[in-house]
Amino acid sequence: MSASGAQFGIEADFIKNNTILEANQVASNVFKLKNFTGKKVRFHLNFSVPAGWTVLGQTEKDYELSENDSIFVPIRVIPDKSIKGGTSYIITATIISDKNVQFAAQNWYASLPAKTKWSARLPIKTQFFYNSHDSSGVLLHLQNDGNADEEIRLTLLPDRRLEVLRKSDGGSSLLTFVVALPAGKDTTIIFPVIRKPLLAANKGKDADLYKAPSKENFSMQIIAKSIHGTGSWSGSMQFIKAGNTTRKNDFGRAAIPITVEANVYDVLSNGTTMSLDAYGNATLEGNRLLNYRFQTVFITNYFNESSLLGNNNYIGYFDDHLSVELGEVNGWGRSLLSGRGLKASYIYKDHMVGAMITRSPGFFKNHNSEGYGFYHNYKKQRYSLTNQFSHNINKPLQLSNDIINSMLTMRVNQFHQFYEGG
């Protein structure tokens, strides 16, 4: 990109025709000119930049260049904060003679690499068809934290008994479409969903003899994939049609429900990762409740038995008098205790007593902190007295602390109550 052979025999060019920009940094280059006209030349040099950009120093200046002489003009530019990745921006240097005739113009291309960082999530993963209605909906949140505009292709895979509608006019929605997601923006897309009539679901065969079950479950999968960039996401949504009758315990004594969620990323690369969540709760006879949770992350694409131990394990048992929790536990709201350990409490008449022990990050080994705590609560009509004690030790820092909390509450009426404690 040279102006050799121009009217005035001036050779002009940028030292670097293409440069890579860094976010929030000044872009710099040097404009070189050489006089081959055989005489002294006077000219005017002007730099033009994209809208919102700023040239440090003067954008226009007059120069005088002797025969066979050269001049090097540095230029430093501050890009606009809203520049987008994957785009080349042009800075132009224009040379105008002392007779006001333009005889050369050179371009410098400055590019910002595209940075892909978008995400999708379902804020609510379970929806119900309430009060015998057959309509519900899905909320999908998309967010672009990268520096380039994205086009996200969404694919909806609903249960055959569900129909996805357009929010604009209530008509049937396309199951594959593209959403434009500008850089630095987010959007929430709403899909109304209806449960198809029994006649359509049963394809007209003995529909009048068909009896709907007391509880129906429907699933819907959503897949999001960038068209021009990288990255993909998938999530599932559950719809539940509850019947008019309920049972105290839906599960037999020999079985407990469990939900397993696995998300796998970069399957074909050496950086395959997978997050695995297994959780659930079971209502047992006698107003008893069992909660359980297991979470782990696999960060390699080969078997790693240590990951099977999990990063977060928990099981809790609760009834009218006793509660026992094992795994990741924490204090009673005014305690600094948290980590892996055991926590239990028991209610006897007007008193509730409890104790706990925690260690972190591991319980049996590799723990650098541990703590103990005791809890007591007394309730009698309008009065309540709560006492707590915790002892915490941090081995690396050689620090320990003891915390005692006591709080007395007196209820005056349903709108007013007094607290005193320390």
Q: Would you give an account of this structure?
A:
1% of the residues lie in helices and 58% in strands. With 422 residues, the protein is mainly β. The strands form five sheets. An eleven-stranded antiparallel sheet has the order 19-20-21-22-23-24-25-26-27-28-29, with no helix packed on it. It has a five-stranded mixed sheet with strand order 2-9-8-4-6, with no helix packed on it. It has a five-stranded mixed sheet with strand order 11-18-17-13-15, with no helix packed on it. The longest helix has 4 residues, at 198-201. It is elongated and about 110 Å long. Residues 1-7 and 199-211 have low confidence and may be disordered.
Number of strands: 29
**Average pLDDT metric:** 80
CA-based gyration radius:
35 Å
Largest sheet report: 11 strands, antiparallel
Helix-and-strand structural type: mainly beta
Q: What ranges have pLDDT less than 50 throughout 5 or more consecutive residues?
A: 1-7, 199-211
What order do the helices and strands follow? EEEEEEEEEEEEEEEEHEEEEEEEEEEEEE
The percent range for strand residues is over 45%
Strands of the widest sheet, in order across it, are: 19-20-21-22-23-24-25-26-27-28-29
Determine the fraction of residues in helical runs and give it as a percent range. under 10%
Number of alpha- plus pi-helical segments: 1
Distance between the ends: 78 Å
So what's the overall shape?
elongated
